[in-house]
Amino acid sequence: MKLETHRLIIRPISLTDKHEIFAYRCDAETNRYQGWVPKTLQDIEAFIQKVSKQVNVPETWFQCAILKKESQKIIGDVGIHFFDRDNKQAEIGCTLNKAYHNRGYATESLSSIIDYLFSELHKHRVIVSIDPENKTSIRLVERLGFRKEAHFIESILVNGKWVDDIVYALLRADWAS
Ligand SMILES: CC(C)(COP(=O)(O)OP(=O)(O)OC[C@H]1O[C@@H](n2cnc3c(N)ncnc32)[C@H](O)[C@@H]1OP(=O)(O)O)[C@@H](O)C(=O)NCCC(=O)NCCS
Prior knowledge:
Layout: E1 3-4, E2 8-12, H1 18-25, H2 41-50, E3 60-68, E4 74-82, E5 89-96, H3 105-120, E6 125-130, H4 135-143, E7 147-158, E8 161-171, H5 172-176
Parallel strand pairs: 5-6
Antiparallel strand pairs: 1-2, 2-3, 3-4, 4-5, 6-8, 7-8
Helix pairs in contact: 1-2
The structure holds coenzyme A.
Coenzyme A binds near residues 134, 136 and 137.
């Protein structure tokens, strides 16, 4: 699997990406709304080894690196969770290196991933799970046309603290229109 947009390349993550990915994933302040922040390079190695090697396998996470075409540098990553046993639904999540925020790269890469999920993998529904305090992520999914479907109260335990969770969703029919 390899996707290409105007400015970006999206391809499966590999162990050789570990240094570039650790450099921004370890930023605990920027990634404060995420359930997991690596503390060591070994944490990232274990993460890369654990994700599925194959795309579209039910009940697994598949992880892609986002590269800038012109520099071939990794600017972030996108995870796809094939959570549905019938394999018709997926969850996505995006993390960008702080140096590349506010330039439309997340919107551009997620648009391409969503296209791929609906057109190539024939998914019916794509969801995103977001901490209600994560305003940039909320703007991102609303810009992409996701609909807010649920606000769960203290439904996720993050670092020993119960936090709320908002679920946004997009149907294939929404995207097509
Ligand atoms: C979530 C995250 C990826 C969003 O990144 P982002 O930079 O806000 O999103 P984009 O890359 O799409 O950039 C969009 C912004 O760039 C602006 N922009 C600037 N130049 C642009 C261009 N050429 N094209 C499009 N948008 C552009 C847009 O106006 C928009 O700003 P706004 O939100 O104030 O309206 C980022 O905040 C992040 O990595 N956070 C940490 C990890 C995290 O919490 N992930 C969420 C897991 S669900």
